[in-house]
Amino acid sequence: MPEKKLVVGVPAEIKNHEYRVALTPVGVDELCRAGHMVLIQKDAGLGSGITDQDYLRHGASIISTGEEVWARAELIVKVKEPMESEWHLMRKKQIIFTYFHFAASENLTRAVMKSGATAVAYETIRDSSGHLPLLTPMSEVAGRMSIQEGAKYLERPFEGRGILLGGVPGVAPANVVILGAGIVGSNAAKVAAGLGANVTLLDINLDRLRYLDDVMPKNVTTLFSDRHSLRNSLATADLLIGAILIPGAKAPHLVKREDLKIMPPRSVIIDVAIDQGGCVETSRPTTHHQPTFIIDDIVHYCVTNMPGAVGRTSTFALTNVTLPFILQLAKMGIEDASANSRAIASGINIYEEKITNLAVAQTFGLPFSPLSGLN
User: Fold this and answer.
1) Catalytic residue among 203, 259, 271, 275
2) How far is CA 366 from the centre of its chain?
3) What percent of the chain has a predicted confidence (pLDDT) above 90?
């Protein structure tokens, strides 16, 4: 039986200050050589330094509007979740492969269910080792960026405390507190320590803390995370990084509003967990256009697409890991791909109007339908 050839579409990202694109020219070349048709919306790659000519040279068709890309493509490949203005473009049997972060938006969840499209979420794909390979590169970027942004917003012109992260001889460096010792947290700790800050890294996984205690420099202290150690750390935190992740589920509010009162005035919170609702009770989504707000004299930075600001780095880091899955989906279709790949099956959050990810269903109290019972 001949392999099915799919029409793969890449619309331009329309989220505020989102400069990434879901496919590079190399990806176009691989798909076209496999016999698939690739539709790229005009200028979709410019934010990452990729021109329409770059795509054309590798066999893509350049489409003038996102509406046409959505209308013609059987497999839509994106970076961020469909925005509200795109919801009506989703259709039954269409495969949408992107970061969805459903737990942060019931409206998005219901819109995808209503459309009948199949949602394959980058952030819940697990490999054979149980890792999240499509979340890892953006977590690395976000972790490193969190310190870069935190250092900036600690400056007085940005309403911060007026503190240099690494200090100078005779003046103490900043105290950086990081909640979560995963990919985001460990990358944040590495950069903050490299700049000379005093870093406290909290987590509940003692094996992870033991490992990081061995490999991190001496200005990184690891602590088991409980309410007591958290509040003690907050009392001296100049910069707090929220790096909590429960795959597919809403992030827990580890930092309550009452806790802000014990933090130093004009200290900064970078809530990287905001894509999943945030791990600070007072967090709410912001954009690169207006990234911060102040509550109880604490600066909050809660941009939901932090890596989008460094579009070129992020695009190439992301597409390095997404392309094999895109090729598999295009070659096999959703049914065969999910039957043959546990990784792809784990990425399917919504299939034929049913929620197939338990964490998403539990977040909103909606019915859960195991994927194994639908195929």
Assistant:
1) 275
2) 24
3) 93
Among the four given CATH numbers 3.40.50.720, 1.10.10.10, 3.90.1150.10, 3.90.79.10, the one describing domain 7-132+310-373: 3.40.50.720
Contact in structure between 243 and 182 (CB atoms under 8 Å): yes
Of 36, 58, 101, 253, catalytic = 101
**What 3-state DSSP class applies to 7?**
strand
The dotted CATH code for 136-309 is: 3.40.50.720
Summarised one tens digit per residue, pLDDT across range 270-303 is 999 999 899 999 999 999 999 999 999 999 999 9
Distance CA 118, CA 122 (A): 13
Q: Using the structure block, give the residue that is written with the tokens 């329309």.
A: 14
Domain boundaries, the chain: 7-132+310-373, 136-309
Q: Is the alpha carbon torsion for 300, 305, 311, 316 positive or negative?
A: positive
How crowded is the C-beta side of 355, counted as CA atoms within 13 Å? 21
Could you please report the per-residue DSSP string of 196-218? T-EEEEEES-HHHHHHHHHHS-T
Answer yes or no: 288 catalytic: no
C-alpha dihedral sign at 242, 243, 249, 253: negative
* Backbone φ, ψ for residue 358 (5° rounding): -60, -45
| This prediction's pTM | 0.89
